[in-house]
Amino acid sequence: MSLAPTLSGAVSAPSLGSSHKAVQSCTLVIFGASGDLTSRKLIPALHQLFLEGQMPARFRVFGFARREKSDAGWRAELREALARFSRTQPVDDARWASFAENLYYHCGDLADGAAYQSLAARINAPDDAALQHNLVFYMATSPSHFGAVADRLHAVGLLQRKEDGDALWQRVVVEKPFGHDEASAHALNNQLTQHIRERQVFRIDHYLGKETVQNIMMFRFSNSIFERLWNRESVEHVQITVSEEIGVGGRGGYYEEAGALRDMVQNHLLQVLSLIAMEPPVSLHAESIRSEKVKLLQSITPLTAESVRRQAVRGQYFAGSHGGEPRKGYRQEEKVSSDSHVETFVALKLFIDNWRWSGVPFYLRTGKNLPVRASEVRVQFRPTPNVLFAAQATPESALQSNALTLRLQPDEGISLHFNGKVPGNSPKLRPVRMHFDYDSEFGAYTPEAYERLLLEAMAGDATLFIRRDEVEAAWRIVDSIRAGWGGAALSNREFYAAGTWGPVAADDLLAPLGHEWHNPQPLP
Ligand SMILES: NC(=O)c1ccc[n+]([C@@H]2O[C@H](COP(=O)([O-])OP(=O)(O)OC[C@H]3O[C@@H](n4cnc5c(N)ncnc54)[C@H](OP(=O)(O)O)[C@@H]3O)[C@@H](O)[C@H]2O)c1
């Protein structure tokens, strides 16, 4: 995809879209090698990159975890997982074998210094500077380990501060959640950057690896007709919905600690918001884009205890049904307290205090056990002065103001909603939709987010990763909302039946300005 020279500067190397990066030979170490993320996402992604010829010429992957296994045993387990999780089916055994000969298992406890020494010895075994010193450490373990693992890697000489001109490199990729509030994120940032520079830290939000999330920026800044309307003069409000169809399932224990605000809003929703609302970056380089995202987060009007009451709604599902199937209430889920007040739904009304967006409400909502799984952004434009057609309007054919919907997943596409004349003699109007569908236009191409993210981490491009100040700014917003809620009990208006679009309180949030939620539609 090419961009207008005035926006991008160096158009020839659009970092966001580049999938053909020169990646130097390197060694990856995955901490948490026997975990769910490794078998479901990381190894299938690396395998896919290998099939597509995007892995470096020489590479090795070490998996680190406590369970005893041999290299062969780990490879056999991963091969089995691939049969379920690879997006290329059936898996070609010969190609798998050439990929798998680069995989090694390293048994050890994250708290055991000797395990890092033996890891260093294995990493340094081949007489190959790139494999010895170009290192990616992927933290796919519980977040409580991240800081200590970095300390221990540093202690055995595997992780060091690198300067820009250094030919060899070391990077740390950190899974979410990055901290549980601003103070813990700040402390973890300090711990990590004791040994390495900020630009060696790659904080994951897998949403940013999704093709369609990247498309937001491309769409905004390469289409002049929309960018001209992208401001308070034309936009009445914006809605961002990330709805999940499933309940918390087996993740009740985790959810009791996290809740929807920390699990979804702090990262995915605020990321989408910043891409939708940020100013054009001066170039497509990582620091320019990330600086604009941080500026946007910093311009969100701070929430006080009083404004949280008016602008932040929690919800929790009770037993209901979905598609004719009964669904449990949250309090009946495994490892959930029977009087829990943890939120499984959040809706927010945020304002952005800058020149472009002053006074425009941004409504964000996310929840579990909603009717469909979908992520959508709806930009609702201001209505026309309704002087010409007011007389013809009936409740069935009321004029609707224009809207643009960016469907991020599934069924990625863009729809423009406008009014069209109904054919015939009467002057009736009806809302109609012009739809663009990525699959029909470009063919079904849905690379997994982790393929892109792993490739970018190996290539050293941090555009799709969260910067230190960004993660802390996002936590500051979330912390202020949590402080406003103050652990108070949920009211009746905050409960919703599983399988519905959330609590009544979420509708109340939009009502004062006469707005309404637009619910994503299920696939036809
Ligand atoms: N799963 C997902 O889809 C997903 C999505 C987004 C983010 N994440 C994040 O990714 C990380 C990993 O998630 P996961 O679902 O893969 O977790 P998991 O299935 O519980 O796996 C945890 C891994 O850590 C290892 N481990 C735990 N304690 C250890 C110790 N003391 N020493 C050595 N290894 C240890 C475990 O292996 P042993 O028991 O063999 O030691 C296991 O391999 C978490 O930060 C999570 O929040 C996961």
The structural class is alpha/beta
The count of strands amounts to 17
Number of domains: 2
Instruction: Just name the CATH architecture of the largest domain.
Output: 2-Layer Sandwich
The largest β sheet comes out as: 9 strands, mixed
Strand order of the largest sheet: 16-15-14-13-7-12-11-8-17
Structural description of this entry:
- The structure is a single chain.
- The chain is globular.
- The chain folds into 2 domains: 153 residues, Rossmann fold (3-Layer(aba) Sandwich); 221 residues, Dihydrodipicolinate Reductase, domain 2.
- It is an alpha/beta fold and 524 residues long.
- The N terminus is likely disordered.
- The longest helix is centred in the middle third of the chain and has 26 residues.
- The chain has 17 helices and 17 strands.
- The structure holds NADP nicotinamide-adenine-dinucleotide phosphate.
- NADP nicotinamide-adenine-dinucleotide phosphate binds next to helix 2.
List the helices and strands and how they pair.
Layout: H1 5-8, E1 26-31, H2 36-51, E2 59-65, H3 71-85, H4 93-100, E3 103-107, H5 113-123, H6 129-133, E4 135-139, H7 146-155, E5 170-174, H8 182-192, E6 201-203, H9 211-222, H10 224-227, E7 235-243, H11 252-277, H12 286-298, H13 305-311, E8 312-318, E9 320-322, E10 325-327, E11 345-350, E12 362-367, E13 374-381, E14 403-409, E15 413-421, E16 429-437, H14 438-442, H15 449-459, H16 468-485, E17 495-497, H17 504-510
Parallel strand pairs: 1-2, 1-4, 2-3, 4-5, 5-6, 7-12, 8-17
Antiparallel strand pairs: 7-13, 8-11, 9-10, 11-12, 13-14, 14-15, 15-16
